[in-house]
Design goal:
With 355 residues, the protein is α/β, with parallel strands linked by helices. It has helices spanning 9-16, 20-28, 35-47, 54-61, 77-87, 90-93, 106-118, 133-136, 160-173, 193-205, 221-238, 251-265, 281-285, 297-315; strands spanning 66-71, 96-101, 123-126, 143-146, 154-158, 178-183, 210-214, 244-248, 272-278, 291-294, 328-331, 334-336.
């Protein structure tokens, strides 16, 4: 059987009676053609069953349609679900992704960035915290960050302050004797620090006893579990017999703490109420469904890719207009009430928005 001949620019030019230069402009500078000529060429591609040579196109115009992603780890469910949501945008935006896991190693992440640039990526989404945004802003491509320090680059974040305020409010409604927030020690520039401020502000405004427990939980289950065992022993000693309302900074950690309590008592004791953060899948699949402050992960991912694509497409114009200053988009969190705070659990998808 004879090998089927690939359709070339010359074939398209002969079919449409346009020059090869015009055909090339269709692929590399389509806005320079009239809408009528664009349609003629588009119809010809269908008739000729044209299959684009992606490698040739990259060599011709230097545009790969690739986006780089750097995430801290895959231990926390937020990052794995965020990555899945970003990758799912391919059908809408047509951009492909190259992914690296940084593990919070600064020099490693710098080497990853250089490797991504060598692949001629057109933009980058960064969720890791190691490299300052001022340094990222100097890179020769658009950058969008998610839930990290973002002073000099575009970003998409949840309203973390509102999330912390919501969590404290939910626990307060259950008349806890002490409200406790467990988190990592963030500097003020990190969006997640807003969870701490929202929680403590609510407690201060309503004159509620509260305690803030800040620990480094690492990037593995073993590291996090060791810290939570120590915290649980501390709580058992300091607040024995008192109703403890606990707001913990992620659903992954909330599930680990819940498992420790159930292993010790065979159930979630009546004097423990628990609220997580993220509304990741683990909060719904836990042995007891976990009340949580839901980051709208799919929306965060879509907004981040959309914001990046806008900048990348702008750069392809004949006279691109650069941003005067970074764009920061804020997404509202959603409160999900589940079994770890409600005696009569609502449906697993039950939710209440608090503005």
């Amino acid at each position: 059987m004879a090998k089927k001949k690939n359709v070339t620019f010359d074939d398209i030019a002969k079919y449409t009676n346009f020059s090869k230069t015009t055909i090339s402009r269709y692929f590399n500078d389509i806005d320079s053609l009239t809408l009528e000529n664009q349609q003629i060429i588009s119809d010809a591609l269908v008739e000729l069953n044209y299959k684009e040579n992606k490698v040739a196109r990259i060599l011709a115009n230097g545009k790969t349609e690739f986006i780089g992603i750097i995430i801290p780890d895959l231990y926390y469910h937020f990052y794995s679900e965020m990555l899945a949501s970003i990758l799912s945008t391919y059908e809408e935006f047509g951009y492909k992704f190259l992914v690296f896991i940084g593990n919070e190693k600064e020099e490693t992440e710098r080497s990853y960035i250089q490797e991504l640039l060598a692949y001629k990526i057109e933009g980058m989404i960064i969720m890791s915290h190691t490299i300052p945004s001022g340094e990222l802003a100097k890179l020769p491509i658009p950058i969008v960050t998610i839930e990290r320090e973002d002073q000099y680059v575009c970003s998409v974040n949840t309203d973390n302050y509102m999330g912390g305020y919501q969590a404290a409010g939910l626990l307060a409604k259950h008349h806890c004797d002490i409200l406790i927030h467990i988190n990592s020690p963030y500097n003020e520039a990190i969006p997640a620090n807003g969870r701490i401020r929202g929680f403590t502000d609510f407690c201060t405004e309503h004159d509620l006893r509260n305690e803030l427990l800040l620990r480094e939980f690492g990037h593995t289950h073993e590291e996090a579990r060791e810290q939570l065992i120590d915290i649980l022993e501390q709580l058992e000693t300091a607040y024995a017999g008192q109703k403890k309302g606990i707001f913990i900074s992620s659903d992954t950690l909330a599930n680990t703490l819940l498992n420790l309590l159930i292993r010790k008592y065979g159930r979630l004791p009546d004097d423990y109420l628990l609220v997580g953060y993220d509304n990741s899948l683990i909060s719904r699949e836990a042995i007891i469904s976990i009340s949580t402050i839901g980051q709208q992960i799919e929306k965060l991912a879509h907004e981040a890719v959309s914001l990046l694509v806008e900048q990348m497409e702008e750069r392809k114009k004949r006279k691109p207009v650069p941003l005067e200053e970074p764009i920061h988009k804020i997404i509202t969190p959603v409160l999900f009430r589940r079994e770890t705070t409600e005696k009569c659990a609502v449906d697993g998808d039950g939710m209440e928005e608090i503005g």
